[in-house]
Amino acid sequence: MDDAISAREFAASDGVGDWRVLGEGASAFFPTRSFAESARFVAAIGGIEGVEDHPPDVDLRHDGVTVSLITGSDDYRGMSHRDVEMARRVSAVARELGLAADPTAVQTMLLIPGAPDIKAIVPFWRAILGYEPRPDSPDEDLVDPHSRGTSFWFEAMEQPRPGGGGAIHLAVWVPIEQAEARVAAALAAGGHIVRDDFAPSWWTLADDAGNEADIATTSGRG
Q: What is the mean pLDDT of the chain?
């Protein structure tokens, strides 16, 4: 895809300081003082020139608005120059309304079912969720066609659970500058490190019952 850029290139672009690239694109959170103020901001985003050509995903709440951007095609899902331009325009609208972003308030979550043979379980999850295969990785990822629910990334297990079983763990994507503090908080709350070989891309932690979760960032990823 000619317009594609990396997460690092997006972050290095001028005018995107409000935004952080997570697992499913770039996000920014703009705190507001009321539901009505949130609604006015969303209405203003709707008036941005070119917004229909590259519409963001918007989550409106009484205390703020989360705006997310990603570019998708049959062979690509990630950041692009179009996302940079739309991020700048959304931030400009926010400034006009007196809103300031809070980068510490963005995160996304990902569910990761594991199995010795992921092809054997993907159809079940597609049926139960009503999801669709992700166009650029249809054999291993499922996404909500309405961009509302958590994405599912399937992972082949090198060491199946006893009896050949699988396991589900989740990944919490956070801004790079927040990751180590989040790991430290989880350890202080009784968790332990399962593996950190791939840090700072991700740390795998577990609670006392053995349930696992990743703290993930875009650091070191393409």
A: 95
Strands (E), 11-75: 20-22, 25-31, 57-61, 64-69, 71-73
Domains of the chain: 4-105 (3.30.1360.20), 108-216 (3.10.180.10)
Judged on CB neighbours under 10 Å (0-12, 13-18, 19+), 175 is buried
H runs (alpha helix) in the chain: 7-12, 35-46, 81-96, 122-129, 179-188
pTM value surpassing 0.70:
yes
Burial 111-137 (b: 16+ CB within 10 A, else e): bbbbbeebeeebeebeeeeebeebeee
Instruction: Give how far the C-alpha of residue 209 lies from the chain's centroid of Cα atoms, to the nearest Å.
Output: 26
Mean pLDDT in residue range 194-205 = 96
